[in-house]
Design a protein that fits this description.
By secondary structure, this protein is α/β, with parallel strands linked by helices. The chain has eight helices and six strands, in the order E-H-E-H-H-E-H-H-E-H-H-E-H-E.
């Protein structure tokens, strides 16, 4: 294919929507550098799902530090990787902070955030995967990660609202909004290749990918 690929693709969306799966497949197919959040390395995450009120702040600060390190890695690799794919944006950290922290904790988080030097490279394309909460819950249950078994519906609803509001106003990079509830990028090759074609045509502004169901 002759289309020019975006040099930095960020895949985003709420928990369970499939962003890491998509990022891995894109990196494999494009021969790209892959940056993953690896939430399983957050030592506070399981405690957060068991007792959100008590563990929210250390969980969020741990994620913040990890994401900042990833952004530094991404910045340092600019000269060496022709294409980079990440399953997160640094901006997501505040979305989660707003959804999980109380007012005092959020004020402290903002102080920490403000003292960090976050020189995040801007993506050339953001792929925002959307799906309703019931679909997310089914996918979370299917992958059966031990630390996600106690996720509450209300928490997922808050996250989805935060994501929707953030991307409603987002204009920092070209944005491809994908209806991820109606496609299967894991086991349906047709769905995946159709999405890849959209990604290969670097959008300007805002575009939507909402394919009609295939019928024989």
């Amino acid at each position: 294919m002759s289309e020019t690929l975006p040099s930095h693709i960020a895949v985003e969306g709420p928990i369970g929507v499939g962003k890491t799966t998509l990022a891995r497949r894109l990196a494999d197919d494009f021969g790209a550098e892959l940056l993953l959040e690896q939430p399983e390395k957050n030592p506070f995450l399981e405690r957060f799902y068991e007792d959100p009120a008590r563990a929210a702040l250390p969980t969020q600060l741990s994620f913040l530090m990890g994401r900042v390190r990833q952004m530094q890695t991404l910045r340092q690799s600019d000269l060496f990787a022709p294409v980079r794919v990440a399953d997160f944006m640094i901006e997501k950290d505040r979305l989660f902070a707003e959804a999980t922290l109380d007012s005092d904790e959020l004020a402290l988080y903002e102080q920490v955030y403000g003292h960090l030097t976050i020189d995040a490279p801007r993506p050339e394309l953001v792929v925002y995967l959307q799906a309703p909460v019931d679909v997310l819950l089914k996918r979370i249950a299917r992958r059966d990660r031990s630390y996600e078994r106690d996720i509450e519906v209300v928490y997922l609803e808050r996250l989805c609202e935060r994501y929707a509001d953030f991307f409603h106003h987002y204009d920092e990079a070209p944005l491809l909004i994908v209806n991820a509830s109606e496609i299967d990028i894991v086991s349906n090759e047709r769905d995946y290749q159709a999405l890849v074609q959209e990604i290969r045509h670097v959008p300007t502004g805002r575009r939507y990918f909402n394919p009609l169901p295939f019928s024989m």
